[in-house]
Structure formats: C-alpha cells, structure tokens
Write a structure and sequence with these properties.
Layout lengths: L2 H4 L30 E2 L2 E2 L4 E4 L2 E4 L3 E3 L2 E4 L2 E2 L18 E2 L2 E5 L11 E7 L4 E12 L7 H11 L3 E4 L4 E4 L10 H8 L7 E2 L8 E11 L5 E4 L2 E5 L1 E2 L5 E9 L2 E4 L4 E3 L7 E2 L2 E7 L9 E10 L5 E10 L1
Parallel strand pairs: 14-25
Antiparallel strand pairs: 1-2, 3-4, 4-5, 5-6, 6-7, 8-9, 9-10, 10-25, 11-15, 12-13, 15-23, 16-17, 18-22, 19-20, 19-21, 19-24, 24-25
Length: 311
C-alpha cells in the first residue's frame, strides 16, 4: 500500500475545515483536551507542551519569548492580536499580499500571496504556517491533539479525528480568529524554519481561514440564525496544491473536498489545513513555496502561495 496516500491528514483530507462535512460525515468521540498526548509532548487543557515550546493556557512560554494568552509579548515587540495589520489592506489587481497577524516569536511572519480567480463571494482572510508534532503515517494522534487544544470546543474533530467541524456556537469576528487562537495556544507562525521543525514526527502545518466577503449572502449557520455565510450552493469547495523547492515541484499530493452543509443555509467561516514533513520529502534547506488552489462550485476561488525558508 502507498503509505503516502494513507496519511490522510496531509493528503486525502488536505482540506480539513471548521466547516461541517469535509466528506467526513461520521463523528468520533471528542478527544479530551486534558488527556491528549502528542509524540514526546504532553498536551492538556492547562499545560500543553509542543516540542521546544512550553505552552500554558494562561501563560504560554515560547522559545525565549514569554507569551501570555491575554497579553502577548514578543521579544522587544508586543503585537496586539486585535490591532495587528490585516492582510486584506494591500491589494493590486486582485492580488493581495497577506501579512500574518500573529506575533513573531523567532520564526518571522507567515506571508502569502492571494490571487482571486473569478469573483468569489468569500475570502481567504488569514494564512499561518507553524511547526508542530504531527505524528507519522502510522498515527496522526499528535496533530489531532494539537488542533483540539487550539480550536476546541468551538470547533471539534469528526470522522477520522482530523477534520474540524462546527462545535459550540461562537460569535465573530472570524477574520482574525486563526491568529487569535494560535497566539493563545502558543503556536509560532512564521516563514523560516529549521530542518528539525519538519523532521518526522514533527511537520509544518499550513492553515488558511475562509470567511464571507463583503456583500456575501445572509443566512443561517451553526453560529447564528442569520448572518453572512458561504452558502451551501458554493459547495463542494475543492482544493489542490503543490510544493516547490528552489522552483522544482517536490510534492503535488494535496487534494481535498468540503461537502455542503445539510441542516443550515451555509457556513460562517472555516479553516483549511494541510501539512508536510520529511516523511514525504527530503526537507533539504532552501526556499520553498506551497501553492494552494481553492475553488467553489461556481469555479471561483483563490490561488494562495505561501513562501517559506528552511535553514
């Protein structure tokens, strides 16, 4: 059996979203955040530990930079998650350079080039790349535990435990939720990493947040009886992607599809998740680009290019 195809978190379910469906209709019992353990790192609701970064729910300490969930402090520079610049302000002919809204704790800041295809009624609001223990082809439980710590209970795992769907209803704004949750959970998004950061069982996790655009249709979602939504008629939203190293393609296996909702008019927001590690590529130091293509049922969508460097 092709083990690469079997590693669902980065392949068959590369488009794992906080959007009900994701072709994962069956749910699994929620993993208890107090007992989830990722490879070599104890993860619990009060004191989650990611390799090299001790994260406490009230006082997260990341390599050399003390980060408090309510008061983020970056070495010499304390960005406010609520006032961080939004990528959506810089645009040119449909191309937007997305500057990360998460604070820099040593890895730089995630940047992404977003290019609209057609006239999508939804946006890619935020992009973040960070390192975490994600497991191996044999077990992705560590990634599930990490996502749970970051997004539960408002979003919960379903299906194989790696798809995030709606959990407890929560109000917006949603366009800054990704950076807020990563900050609170002690994740360190960036654009430069070490080989160790994606040496299996660690990997690089790529997350994109999807939100309704200005003027989007109104309707019901799991978060509200009436509000801006990505309507059910836009689904399935499908993804594909490729990773290049110094301009040459080294991985093109990033398929995914999100099924439409069945009990509401649409979705208020969601997250796309993909990941990569040296289990599938050499991980040689140098310059990389992950290009994700997202398309809705009308053919409209976004091309998102995420550059990063491995040293």
């Amino acid at each position: 059996m092709d083990t690469k195809k079997g590693w669902i978190w980065t392949r068959a379910v590369a488009l794992c979203a906080a959007l009900a469906g994701c072709n994962e209709a069956a749910s699994v019992p929620p993993v208890d955040a107090a007992t989830a353990t990722d490879a070599g790192n104890a993860t619990d609701a009060g004191n989650a530990t990611d390799a090299g970064n001790a994260t406490d729910a009230g006082n997260a300490t990341d390599a050399g930079n003390a980060t408090d969930a309510g008061n983020a402090t970056d070495a010499g520079n304390a960005p406010d998650a609520g006032s961080a610049p939004d990528a959506g302000s810089a645009s040119d002919a449909g191309v937007t350079l997305d500057a990360a809204t998460s604070p820099d704790a040593g890895n730089g800041e995630t940047t992404a080039l977003r290019e609209a295809v057609g006239s999508p009624s939804w946006n890619v609001a935020e992009v973040a790349t960070f390192s975490a223990v994600v497991g191996t082809a044999g077990s992705t439980a560590p990634l599930t535990a990490r996502l749970l710590m970051l997004f539960f209970p408002e979003h919960r795992p379903a299906g194989n435990g790696l798809v995030l769907v709606e959990g407890a209803a929560h109000a917006g704004p949603y366009d800054g939720e990704l950076s807020r949750r990563l900050l609170a959970g002690g994740a360190d998004p960036g654009d430069h990493f070490t080989v160790a950061d994606w040496s299996s069982p660690r990997g690089l996790v790529f997350m994109l947040s999807l939100v309704p655009a200005a003027g989007a249709p109104m309707g019901s979602s799991s978060d509200s009886p009436s509000g801006p939504i990505l309507p059910a008629s836009l689904y399935p939203i499908v993804s594909s992607g490729e990773l290049t190293y110094e301009g040459a393609v080294v991985d093109s296996d990033f398929p995914g599809s999100i099924a439409p909702p069945t009990d509401v008019d649409g979705r208020s927001h969601g997250f796309v998740v993909a990941a990569e590690s040296t289990e599938f590529i050499a991980g040689t130091p140098g310059s990389y680009r992950l290009r994700m293509r997202l398309r809705d049922a009308t053919g409209a969508g976004w091309d998102v290019t995420i550059p990063f460097r491995v040293e």
